[in-house]
Design goal:
Blueprint (H helix, E strand, L loop, with lengths): L2 H28 L3 E7 L3 H12 L3 E8 L6 H15 L5 E2 L15 H4 L20 H11 L4 E4 L4 H9 L1 H5 L2 E5 L14 H5 L1 H9 L3 E5 L1 H4 L3 E3 L2 H9 L1 H18 L6 E3 L1 H10 L4 E10 L10 E4 L2 H8 L2 H13 L5 H11 L4 E7 L1 H12 L2
Parallel strand pairs: 1-2, 1-4, 2-3, 4-5, 5-6, 6-11
Antiparallel strand pairs: 7-8, 9-10, 9-11
Helix pairs in contact: 2-12, 2-13, 2-17, 5-6, 6-9, 11-12, 13-17, 14-16
The chain binds beta-D-ribofuranose and calcium ion (CA).
Length: 371
């Protein structure tokens, strides 16, 4: 081939690759990232979810607040600083609520997250010098980033306080909270952990007019990983961050599966992925109530999706009985109007995500963490 022919061939290859590469490059540039602020009681699954957010190209992580839940707020803060160091990332961290609003702090998170929330991987940090006003930190971030998404990975104590103290700022925030269950619970037969831990906070979050989406246990239980292969994969292919996560995740998975192996959920990953990729979940408008009783039903979430469910959540049995009487005794009684009037007393207060594409979510997290 002559030099001239070689030159023409080279030019053709370059031009072709430009036309092929150009749309992809353009697509990359125009891809929008989601500004997210994270509130966390960082235990092991929170750590994996946060690592995913830090590594995802779709998120712009603005900062963090910590809260007691899986472990104390101070332990959670130390865990977060340890994780950020492993990820070589510096972001603002504010220490949050040391206990739920009205009930004593449960210490049962230790069963699956270990005594300090990250099994034995916590670094030594003095957190006393950090800011301690989490609701103010959330409000400041909301003011500076209109439309930001607040991902709540723990009990909703800080979020409730932010809603009460900063209603104006919180109005524009999209809250994606991992909390609640329509089916069985994981803390008790009926209550999911974050709802159980601080039911009064969840109640305030639901009743204060926040734009809140609950990713419930029904959904996050579908985001499963191989309890033995995934920690090993992180250690081998996840760089320094993956190597850091592998040991506590292995212990967490072993605790969850009681050593039996197999697939296990990493709950907080579901909320993190959903916040960036809502098309992987199915949100539904709902009326949600949480039981603040200190008895068997503490933290149980009652989720009304049908008209009949909503009506019976709003009206007492006495009121419903009166309707039944009227239906058969009052000529021309407008039953539909009576039901409509009941429904109007309490509009829906949340979006609930009861179903997600679990495999696709898990794959996204695996890809981001082993890239
Ligand atoms: C939730 O409880 C905690 O143990 C996890 O971190 C997650 O936020 C799941 O019910
Ligand atoms: Ca959590």
């Amino acid at each position: 081939m002559s030099t001239r022919h070689r030159f023409i061939l080279l030019l053709a290859v370059l031009l072709t690759s430009f036309w092929i590469a150009a749309p992809a490059a353009y697509a990359k540039e125009t891809r929008t990232t989601v500004p997210v602020f994270v509130d966390t009681d960082i235990g092991v699954d929170d750590a994996v979810a946060i690592a995913y957010l830090l590594r995802s190209r779709d998120a712009q992580v603005l900062g963090f607040t910590t809260v007691s839940g899986n472990t104390s707020a101070d332990n959670a803060t130390r865990n977060l600083l340890t994780l950020l160091a492993a990820a070589q990332v510096q972001l603002p961290v504010t220490v949050g609520a040391p206990a739920p609003l009205q009930v004593p702090a449960s210490r049962t998170g230790a069963f699956v997250h270990g005594p300090s929330g990250l099994w034995f991987s916590q670094g030594q940090y003095d957190v006393s010098g950090l800011p301690h006003d989490a609701p103010a930190a959330i409000a400041t971030a909301a003011r500076a980033n209109p439309g930001m998404t607040l991902i709540a990975l723990g009990p909703l104590t800080n979020i409730a306080q932010a809603a009460l103290r900063f209603p104006q700022e919180m109005r524009g925030v999209k809250v994606v909270a991992l909390a609640g269950s329509r089916g069985p619970g994981n803390s008790t037969p009926v209550a999911e952990f974050n709802a159980f831990y601080d039911p009064h906070a969840l109640d305030i979050a639901l009743e204060s007019g926040l734009n809140v989406t609950l990713v419930t246990l029904d959904a996050f239980d579908e985001v499963t990983f191989d309890s033995q292969a995934f920690p090993q994969q992180l250690a081998a292919e996840g760089g320094a961050l993956g190597q850091f996560l592998a040991a506590p995740l292995g212990a967490y998975m072993a605790a969850q599966t009681q050593g039996a192996g197999g697939m296990a959920a990493i709950p907080d990953v579901a909320a993190a992925v959903y916040a960036l990729r809502p098309s992987l979940g199915t949100p539904q408008s709902a009326l949600v109530d949480v039981s603040a009783d200190q008895a068997l039903t503490r933290g149980q979430t009652v989720i009304g999706l049908t008209m009949q469910q909503r009506v019976t959540m709003i009206a007492s049995d006495e009121q419903m009985s009166a309707l039944a009487d009227q239906l058969f005794t009052v000529p021309g009684f407008d039953f539909s109007m009576a039901l409509y009037q009941i429904l109007m007393q309490r509009p829906d207060n949340a979006q609930v995500v009861l179903e997600v594409k679990g495999r696709a979510m898990a794959r996204l997290a695996e890809q981001a963490l082993t890239r």
